Amino acid sequence: MQIDFGMLGLIFVINFAYITLNTLRFLLVMRGYRYFAAFMSVIEITIYVLGLSLVLNRLDNPINLIVYALGYGVGVYVGMMLEDKLALGYTMISVILPDPKSPLPAVLRSNGFGVTQHVAYGLEGERLALEILAPRKNERRLYDLIKTTAPNAFIIAYEPRYISGGFWLKRVKRRNARGKR
């Protein structure tokens, strides 16, 4: 059995590209970028058919299948890393602080984050609860500010699917108005 390294490389690259696009497309759909995801799927399926046909036409060599699977695994990993770097969308962070007089809301606001705060009651009494909406690209900086200012904070993060009104609506309108000038 002769090994064609050029063919193996092609199989790997094609499946790597397909799965990277597949992972990104899936994440774009989940974040509401439907049109871009639909366009991406056309390219993705073309690459998929090409790669699969290369393997199916050469099933006599099991190394082709192994390289195809390796391209799949590496493509998933790289797709997730790319999406993490793109940091599309927003994150919603709920923070519960044991100190109702914590300086954290002021620190976050002075760093450009919108914060809604209210008094909450837990097992051990009064707490300060915060709701913070932030672009995902600022998520790490937000966590660092929280951990530095209030190391004993309880933090929960999730991705909102719909945003309307409030702090963000005003900021987006201002940004759009500046862009039209």
From TrEMBL:
<keyword id="KW-1133">Transmembrane helix</keyword>
<keyword id="KW-0812">Transmembrane</keyword>
<dbReference type="InterPro" id="IPR022930">
    <property type="entry name" value="UPF0316"/>
</dbReference>
<feature type="transmembrane region" description="Helical">
    <location>
        <begin position="35"/>
        <end position="56"/>
    </location>
</feature>
<protein>
    <recommendedName>
        <fullName>UPF0316 protein ACFQH1_03355</fullName>
    </recommendedName>
</protein>
<dbReference type="Pfam" id="PF18955">
    <property type="entry name" value="DUF5698"/>
</dbReference>
<feature type="transmembrane region" description="Helical">
    <location>
        <begin position="6"/>
        <end position="28"/>
    </location>
</feature>
<feature type="transmembrane region" description="Helical">
    <location>
        <begin position="62"/>
        <end position="82"/>
    </location>
</feature>
<keyword id="KW-0472">Membrane</keyword>
<dbReference type="Pfam" id="PF10035">
    <property type="entry name" value="DUF2179"/>
</dbReference>
<keyword id="KW-1003">Cell membrane</keyword>
<feature type="domain" description="DUF5698">
    <location>
        <begin position="23"/>
        <end position="80"/>
    </location>
</feature>
<dbReference type="InterPro" id="IPR044035">
    <property type="entry name" value="DUF5698"/>
</dbReference>
<feature type="domain" description="DUF2179">
    <location>
        <begin position="113"/>
        <end position="165"/>
    </location>
</feature>
<dbReference type="InterPro" id="IPR019264">
    <property type="entry name" value="DUF2179"/>
</dbReference>
<comment type="similarity">
    <text>Belongs to the UPF0316 family.</text>
</comment>
